[in-house]
Amino acid sequence: MPEEDLIEVKFRLYDGSEIGPFWYPPSSTVGYLKEKIIADWPKDTKVNPKAVNDVKIISGGKILENSKTVGQCQMPFHELQKAAITMHVVVQPTVAKTKAEKKIDEAERKNICSCSIL
Prior knowledge:
Layout lengths: L6 E6 L5 E7 L5 H11 L14 E5 L2 E2 L6 H4 L4 H4 L3 E7 L7 H12 L8
């Protein structure tokens, strides 16, 4: 594939550091980008994503869906600038509650006192 068809993308992390720039074909999915971000994530940071769903990529003020391609995420003015697209990366770890924690939460909700004024 000619280099002209590739799109240059760099990722800005929550602490201001960057990953990239890298060149991707327009057909690469956002899910693939997230996998690359996790693989290239700096090891010395406090927050480390463990799964693709822990990573949110923001471009043009929108959170990108995993099924979208880089070509679909490209802003129209990128054609004029011929510069790298900067995408912001946010880590939002998924919190899975255990069954015991869910039961405790439900029990707390059931023990709520309510008053009625007649």
